[in-house]
Write a structure and sequence with these properties.
Strands 1-2 form a two-stranded antiparallel ribbon. The chain contains five helices and two strands, in the order αααααββ. The longest helix has 18 residues, at 68-85. It has helices at 3-12, 25-31, 33-45, 52-65, 68-85, and strands at residues 130-135, 138-143. By secondary structure, the chain is mostly helical. The chain has a domain at 3-85.
Length: 144
């Protein structure tokens, strides 16, 4: 079979997976090029298989690759995925932390009483109260 006929046959092949199951490859490229590029990119990462779905995805990739626009879409998807896996983070600059300073008393000053902050204890919660509620035949204790 020559390339023109093979391309026409591939275009009439039907998608056997995903949200566009049942659509032709030609329809998929005309109406959902981004989805087609995503599938073509992802099938490259899958392990080779004789499974019908894998073969269908590979045929879609082959059909897409026959067109310039399809090859560009796959290349854009690859670039997008690579950009997502390697984020461009700015270089972090660290500054040395200054040593803590200790206040010392001058010899001419006599040490006076040191003011300490007053310590307040946390307020204690009120004691829990038990109440019994009756609903129907059940008695439930509620802690307030």
């Amino acid at each position: 079979m020559d390339d023109g006929n093979q391309l026409a046959v591939l275009g009439m092949s039907r998608v056997q997976f995903g949200q566009f199951r049942g659509q032709t490859f030609k329809w998929l490229l005309e109406n959902a090029l981004g989805y087609s590029a995503y599938i073509s990119y992802e099938v490259q990462r899958e392990a080779r298989s004789d499974a019908p779905l894998y073969i269908n995805k590979m045929l879609l990739k082959q059909y897409m690759s026959a067109f310039d626009e399809g090859r560009r879409a796959i290349a854009m998807k690859e670039a997008e995925k690579k950009k997502m896996t390697k984020p461009n983070l700015p270089a972090v600059q660290t500054r040395p932390t200054p040593a803590p300073t200790v206040a010392t008393a001058r010899p001419s000053q006599a040490p006076g009483p040191v003011a300490t902050p007053s310590k307040r204890s946390a307020p204690t919660p009120p004691p829990q109260q038990k109440r019994q509620c009756t609903e129907g035949n059940y008695k439930t204790q509620i802690l307030l």
